[in-house]
Specification:
By secondary structure, this protein is an alpha+beta fold. Helices cover about 50% and strands about 20% of the residues. A hairpin with a 2-residue loop joins strand 1 and strand 2.
Length: about 150
């Protein structure tokens, strides 16, 4: 049963974008394979599956690197719930468990005026060099997320 489940997981990950173990469990159930979250967690670890902004990826999978701003825009549209600013701090809220994926893309973007990011479970703090830089960053992120 384990080898069948592993084969199904590899097939599903290589053919679709999967962002959570819950989503993976549902897809497996459609194929008649029941698995608990703990089992899926072990399976993903054993298979060497990585999770990034584009969901789960098999090890060695060739991933086309999109332009940084296109990748950030895609993640912002999918993950961003709200964006606020206070002084030199920009606070981005995401669904639970998605803060890290957004922070990874923000770090890759290397936006001018960003001193650094800190990701929590559902919040990303972005430190800007000045209040003016923070306002510019908020405007740019809102535009990329199509909120402006």
């Amino acid at each position: 049963m384990k080898s069948r489940r592993h084969a199904a997981i590899r097939s599903l990950i290589s053919s679709s974008e999967i962002y959570s173990q819950h989503e993976l469990a549902q897809l497996l159930a459609r194929e008649g394979i029941e698995a608990t979250q703990a089992t899926l967690s072990r399976d993903l670890s054993e298979l060497g599956v990585l999770k990034g902004p584009d969901g789960y990826q098999l090890p060695g999978a060739a991933v086309a690197a999109p332009a940084p701003d296109a990748a950030l825009a895609r993640v912002l549209r999918r993950e961003l719930i709200s964006i606020t600013m206070g002084g030199t701090l920009v606070v981005l809220k995401t669904p639970t468990g998605h803060g890290n994926a957004l922070a990874i893309e923000l770090d890759r973007m290397r936006m001018q005026g960003v001193l650094g990011t800190i990701a929590g479970d559902d919040t990303v703090f972005l430190a800007a060099s000045t209040p003016l830089a923070a306002r510019r960053i908020v405007k740019e992120l809102r535009t990329l997320a199509q909120l402006a």
